[in-house]
Amino acid sequence: MMIKDMRNNRIPSESSVQQRSDFSTKIHGSILWKYEEEPGRIHSLYELAKARMWNARSDVPWQDSNHNHPFPTLDEGEPMHGFSAYDALAESDRCRISWWRHALEISEILHGEQGALLVSSQLVSCMPTVEAKLFASSQVFDEARHVEFFSRYLHEIVGEIHPPSNELRRLIQTMVDDPRWDMKFIACQILIESLAMAKFQEIRQYTRVPVLAFAIDYIAADEARHVKFGVEFLKEHLRELSSVELAERSDFVLDNVLRLANSLNVYTRIAEKYGWDVAALRHHLRQYRIRHPEINRNRFRQLFINMKAVGLLTERTHARMMSMEVFR
Ligand SMILES: [Fe+2]
Ligand SMILES: [Fe+2]
Question: I need a surface site. Which of 40, 107, 137, 227 has the fewest CB within 10 A?
Answer without folding.
Answer: 40
